[in-house]
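Box 3.1 A note on notation
Throughout this textbook, protein chains are presented in two layers. The first layer is the amino acid sequence; the second is a token string describing backbone geometry. Keep the layers aligned when reading.
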Amino acid sequence: MRSPEGLEISFASNCLGHFLLANLMLEDLQKSPAPRLVTLGTVTANSEEFGGKVPIPALADLGNFQGSLDGFKAPVSMIDGKPFKPGKAYKDSKLCCMMMSRDLHTRLHDATGIVFSMLYPGCAADTPLFRNAPVLFQRIFPWFRKNITKGYVSQPLSGDRVAQVVADPEFAQSGVHWSWVNRQQVDRKAFAQGLSSGATDSQRSKKLWELSAGLVEL
């Protein structure tokens, strides 16, 4: 699937959409007494966690940004310019989100006071996120996440954790990727999750920023 502009939909929505919205909100955010801009990450895009080491269908990898350099126009779909893999497209787009949040923190936190943070609340595996997946997958995946990986969270618990990072004073630290030990347990405590070198490389983040700004004509 592609956006109205002809871009692969995962990258257009999760990366470029977030990038443009974040930049458009900056002026208004600075008028708030305690501004925060919170981004949803994912375990599958972070190779510092087990879920990010599972190569199904492939690991998150932006390559040398060849897809972006080529403008993402058909037949180009992937940010690395390689053949399309839907699961990897999602992982790549979320890795871009995590890089964007880190870059916003580096560029703007000290100057604006805005808290830029991320979180992975756990996998709400029974949401419409998987509506286009095979029916058998939709039935098995929630059970697998609940009983095997122990990464499943309910939609209310996921929402509660997002609300905490948005508003709770305990989450007022900028540049942090929040996560929870044994995520499906309601009483779990949050901690600052380490990120992969791919998400924290400042030069690559700068390059992604420049490419994204060009694609959204910012």
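The beta strands are 36-40, 115-119, 177-180, 190-192. The radius of gyration is 17 Å.
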